[in-house]
Amino acid sequence: MNPQSRDEARGAGDVQPSYSSAVETPFLPEDLRTPAGSSAPGKDANEAYELAEYGYGKNYVKILKVRRDGLRHSIREYEVNTHLQLDSREDFLQGDNKHIIATDTQKNTVYVLAKKFGIKSPEAFSLLLCSHFLYTYPQVTEASVHIEEYPWTRIMRDGQKHNHAFVMSPVAYRSCTVSQRRNEAPRIRGELHGLRVLKTTQSSFRDFVQDEYRTLPDANDRIFSTVVTASWLYNTGSVDFDRVWHTVKECILDKFAGDPKEGIFSPSVQNTLYLAAKMVLDQVDEIERVEMQMPNKHYNSLDLSKFQSTIKGGFEHHEVYQPTDKPAGIIHAQLERSNKEMASRPRQVFRRRAKL
After folding, report:
1. Which residues are catalytic?
2. Taking a C-beta distance cutoff of 8 angstroms, is the pair 106, 42 a contact?
3. How far is CA 142 from CA 41, 54, 185, in A?
4. DSSP for 184-203?
5. Do residues 164 and 213 touch, judged by C-beta distance below 8 A?
6. Radius of gyration (C-alpha) of the chain in whole angstroms
7. Where does O2 bind (predicted)?
8. Residue 228, phi then psi, degrees to nearest 5
9. 4: annotated binding-site residue?
10. Tell me: the pLDDT tens digits for 186-211?
11. What does residue 134 show for φ and ψ, rounded to 5 degrees?
12. Least confident of 4-8, 39-43, 127-131
């Protein structure tokens, strides 16, 4: 989906409340969390075991937002997962449900808040949901929301964008994960996955370790293909999340493809990944850390020397390759700003919001 279509689908008129990095309700003291005569939170009566990770939520809440401005309509479709952790474990240990916010209630909350405030972006809506759960229910100690977006774009007819008809065009998939603990700033992670790219030249892989286990020859010119997965951690919530997502995607494509005529040389997947991640941090000050994965999608040359008499007279400049996806190499890295670089930057703050 191109940036212009994304802006049209975004719905600039949606009301977006501000949010807080520090929910006002304090942690309950430990002695107030444990009723008299009961075991400590997370432990059964004989203290032989301790409940470690726990929580619950609602997955796969599907929602389609339609904005109608006269004849011009815009859509955005999402799949929402909510997850809550409570300060009490009595539901697990004692079967006591009095503190549980039902997963059906969580589902209804998604629809009600979407209708009331609109959805400007997956990240902004995730922040709204986390803040709502923490403000509304004092027993919630942490709220997490994960949202996947479906990549709809307008249908083009006779060179014009259609007013109300759309086609799913998954160049890449967008998602985000936001989590917030009571009295702490939210952690906002933008995500991109499924970005499959291929170039037929300007890639090599040579001069790697030579030992008794190596069979792979040096490749001076090869097909380079991968499916990029990227995630990044924001250092602020005061940002145009849609713009950042498209910027990250364009940084990856720029360092993979390069100039339209000349391209860009890649001596390894590792180097291409690093240059893309570095470009993201260079261009987006609001990103603290970026992580990428680039698995190899191999296209192997075929030995057709036994078929020369059959091939004779064919197209000289046409080559045939065999796609293989297993086994596959996986290249990954995380690039973050240094402590020195962060010290020179202005401190980012989160805005507070009024209680819903």
Report:
1. 58, 103, 298
2. no
3. 16, 11, 11
4. SPPEEEEEEEEEEEEESSSB
5. no
6. 25
7. 103, 296
8. -85, 135
9. no
10. 999 999 999 999 999 999 999 999 99
11. -70, -40
12. 4-8
